[in-house]
Design a protein that fits this description.
Elements lengths: L3 E12 L2 E12 L3 E6 L5 H8 L7 E6 L12 E4 L11 H11 L4 H14 L15 H13 L5 E5 L7 H16 L3 E5 L3 H7 L2 E6 L2 E7 H7 L3 E8 L8 E7 L2 E6 L5 H10 L3 E9 L2 H9 L4 H8 L2
Parallel strand pairs: 3-7, 3-8, 5-6, 6-7
Antiparallel strand pairs: 1-2, 1-4, 8-9, 10-12, 10-13, 11-12
Helix pairs in contact: 2-3
Main location: membrane
Membrane topology: Peripheral membrane protein
Pfam families: ABC_tran, DrrA1-3_C
Length: 309
């Protein structure tokens, strides 16, 4: 598990006078699911394109299996780009069979696998339709199927569930989890933090082309305050070295605990300061909380778009 399948070291990417990535280094270990996270424009897609040889890096090392990626090794890679694209005027089953053969499967095996996958994602009755007759979400399921055909060693998934309702999002997350169980290494780019908490072993938060945080999900959560108090109250919350006040609304506040102090001591501090406490809940800081602390409000509109709000 500790062996690196993807190795990026001191990667820099310039476009003219604009430095998009600066001194980026990280590994993706064989067999893990890795969350590659960041706000829009942080450099995630640029990094993946450089890793896959689409962009030539200004400097640094980007390796898959110990060497630069080449199309000759593409059958062991499954890449789902954010910009989807398949042959829209061809029947679904023909498209999937064609891509299966490109990935080293024979025609019969590719067709059988495709029909089984279509049944799993509730598209078994759509196999003979032209792709452009399907809805956007249905087309996205086909694209994911093409991506995971023939059990690739490495999966790179850019916003794999964008635009899906909760039922279909859970279905696709189950499919991705099955790929990991089968031995695939998965790199996920997503703004859905609950997906990261469910699936990812480690994460990297990229901000302005550099590493903001890197480690296990727990390590990143603990770095930004492992515990948070959700407080319903009236009165004035006193300052304290034991917490930071991260949110204040009418009769509601969130306190990020900055020390290992017992929660009961925080409650006692508040009561001794004359605060009337109507609700006191201690929870672990979520990755959503971390994401908002790192990137501020710049992604709020995008998060709402993803959730359909």
């Amino acid at each position: 598990m500790d062996e690196a399948l993807v190795h990026i070291d001191r990667f820099r990417m310039d476009f003219g006078d604009n430095t998009v990535i600066s001194d980026l280094s990280f590994d993706v270990r064989r067999g893990e699911t890795f969350g590659f996270l960041g706000s829009n424009g942080s450099g995630k897609t640029t990094t993946i394109r450089a890793l896959l040889g689409i962009y030539r890096p200004t400097s640094g090392t980007l390796h898959i299996n110990g060497k630069p990626f080449s199309p000759e090794n593409g059958s062991r890679l499954g890449y789902l780009p954010e910009e989807r694209g398949l042959y829209k005027k061809e029947p679904v089953i023909d498209i999937m069979t064609y891509f299966g053969r490109l990935k080293g499967m024979d025609r019969n095996a590719a067709k059988a696998w495709s029909l089984s996958y279509l049944d799993r994602v509730a598209l078994g009755d759509k196999s003979s339709l032209q792709l452009d007759k399907l809805s956007g979400g249905q087309q996205q399921k086909i694209q994911l199927g093409v991506t995971i055909m023939n059990d690739p060693e490495l999966l790179i998934l850019d916003e794999p569930t964008k635009g899906f309702d909760p039922v279909n999002r859970r279905l696709l997350m189950d499919i991705i989890a099955d790929q990991k169980t089968a031995g695939a290494t998965v790199v996920m780019i997503t703004h859905q933090m609950e997906e990261v908490e469910r699936l990812c072993d480690r994460v990297l938060l990229l901000k302005n082309g550099t590493t903001e945080a890197y480690g296990t999900v727990d390590e990143v959560q603990n770095r930004y305050g492992g515990r948070i108090v959700r407080l319903k109250y009236s009165g004035r919350i006193p300052p304290s070295p034991a917490y930071e006040i991260s949110l204040v609304e009418q009769n509601y506040a969130e306190l990020v605990l900055t020390t290992d102090v017992d929660e009961s001591n925080i409650l006692r501090q508040l009561l001794d300061a004359g605060v009337t406490v109507r609700g006191f809940e201690v929870t672990k800081v979520s990755l959503d909380d971390v994401f908002l602390r790192v990137y501020g409000d710049q992604n709020v509109a995008y998060q709402r778009e993803l959730s359909g709000v």
